[in-house]
Design goal:
- The N and C termini lie far apart (45 Å).
- The chain contains 9 helices and 13 strands.
- It has a 7-stranded mixed beta sheet with strand order 4-1-5-6-7-8-9, with helices on both faces.
- Helix 3 crosses helix 8.
- Helix 3 links the parallel strand 5 and strand 6.
- The chain has 2 domains: 203 residues, L-asparaginase, N-terminal domain (Rossmann fold), CATH 3.40.50.1170; 89 residues, no CATH class.
């Protein structure tokens, strides 16, 4: 008998369609996930699924406070009593939560899966039931402990297994999740499981912290996305310890320094960060190799940013939030940012 803990955080996978056509979180709709599986699974008698405390929040409403509530709940769980944990979560912020808990649960001895659905489960086109079953299949097969996402992409009809620290948010107008090393598990096999075991050996993980302890996540990291006309005077930095600044696809940002244009330049923001004792991180961006000449311009600034390369934006943000919640000294944060905690840094040219 396999024992699985099901945590229902909410999202589309736990919603119903209301009379006015909107989607709302519903306890009855959430319960359908377990019932659908048990009623359609050939090995249902071999599994005991225990439902946990439920959170019931649309994932676009996910906050750091709710992450902390989930962490507090997980601290009460006896992981040794289960063969796996499945967390039902909405799609909108799934990649951020999967990344965060990849760090928080780096040393977990059982696999943890985030599952979602692109439509309410009452819709026959919903992929939530399939995503949940795929997660349970992996647990039943003895997958290596880590944090994963199982998701049936709509565009090609294939079921993919993603490492939590690698998955990226869906693009606009798309119901597909992607990661650079996603594994097609439409036909789960021993070969797939062996590939996972070799790619992510537990001995190469470096836990930042244990789940247990007197710590909580803090809202001290500001994330900024680049766009034409981004005015840095629009941001107040006083309550933050770090800024994670995205880049254009070439790893670049605006360095315009002509008269009356300083407020649009990353150099201006670096000056403001220095004044407010705020660290700035560029992601993804690198200074080595063939780069545009705006990049060394940024690197030569007397308050040069930290260049992050090889992590997703979601994994970078989650890692910074955790580190700036755990540590006060910049030296400790810098050391952990350079360390591959749970395979979040993947090889990329």
């Amino acid at each position: 008998m396999k024992h699985i803990l099901l945590i229902l955080t909410g999202g589309t996978i736990c919603t119903r369609v209301t009379e006015d056509g909107t989607r709302a979180v519903s306890a009855k709709a959430a319960a359908q996930l377990k019932l659908n599986f048990l009623n359609n699974c050939a090995y249902a008698e071999e599994i005991q699924i225990e439902e946990s405390e439920n959170f019931y929040v649309l994932s676009e409403n996910m906050t750091i406070d709710i992450w902390n509530r989930l962490i507090d709940y997980l601290r009460t769980v006896d992981f040794s009593a289960y063969d796996g944990i499945v967390i039902a979560h909405g799609t909108d912020t799934l990649a951020y939560s999967a990344a965060m808990f990849s760090y928080v649960l780096t040393d977990a001895k059982i696999p943890v899966f985030f599952v979602s659905s692109q439509r309410p489960l009452s819709d026959p086109l919903a992929n939530g039931n399939a995503n949940f079953k795929a997660a349970v299949d992996c647990i039943m097969a003895g997958i290596t402990p880590n944090v994963y996402v199982t998701y049936l992409n709509i565009s090609d009809g294939k079921m993919y297994l993603h490492l939590g620290s690698h998955i990226r948010q869906c693009e606009n107008y798309s119901d597909d999740f992607e990661s650079f090393d996603a594994i097609d598990i439409s036909m789960l096999s021993d070969a797939s499981l062996e590939k996972i075991k070799k790619a992510y050996p537990s001995k190469e993980k470096h836990p930042i912290c244990t789940l247990y302890g007197d710590w909580h996540l803090k809202d001290t990291v500001l994330m900024i996305a680049p766009y034409v006309g981004l005015n840095y005077d629009a941001f107040s930095l006083g309550s933050y310890r770090a800024v994670l600044h995205g880049t254009y696809h070439s790893g670049t940002v605006c360095t315009q320094t002509e008269e009356h244009h300083d407020k649009y330049s990353i150099l201006y923001l670096l000056n403001r960060c220095e004044e407010n004792h705020v660290a700035l991180y560029l992601s993804p961006s690198k200074v080595e190799g063939e780069v545009y000449d705006t990049v060394p311009t940024v690197a030569r600034h007397h308050n040069a940013p930290h260049f992050l390369w090889g992590m997703t934006t979601e994994a970078s943000y989650a890692k910074l939030v955790l580190l700036y919640s755990l540590f006060d000294r910049e030296e400790e944060i810098d050391a952990w940012m350079k360390l591959n905690v749970n395979f979040e840094m993947y090889p990329i040219e």
